[in-house]
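Could you show me some protein's one-letter sequence and the numbers that encode its backbone in two labelled lines?

___
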Amino acid sequence: MTSKKIFSLTTLWYLAFATAIAIVVPIIFNVINLTDVQKYTFAFFGINVIFTILSGLIVGIKKQPIIYLLFFPAIYLIGVNLFFESFAYYIAIVYLLIGFLTYGAVKD
């Protein structure tokens, strides 16, 4: 991967969406006073999984660098410190695996 691709507009878009999903969505859930069960269900197994699958599909279909799939789990780990319990660290591994699996499913 060249430095031109690392510092591209596409990279900024992936970072922006990963930040929005990993940081902004939990803030919204705290503002609307969802219970812990609702937060964990909607965030961990709803929105985040859908975002991870879509990221893997887009990166695989457009033949973009696989490093883009590392952005969301990395930013998610930062957000876990702010909003969730310590068990949520392990879910980052699940997101990484889901992203790689979907990437591999559509990659030629």
User: Anything to note?
Assistant: The mean pLDDT is 87. Helices lie at 3-6, 9-31, 36-61, 68-83, 91-106. Residues 14 and 61 are 15 Å apart (CA to CA). The chain has one domain: 3-105.
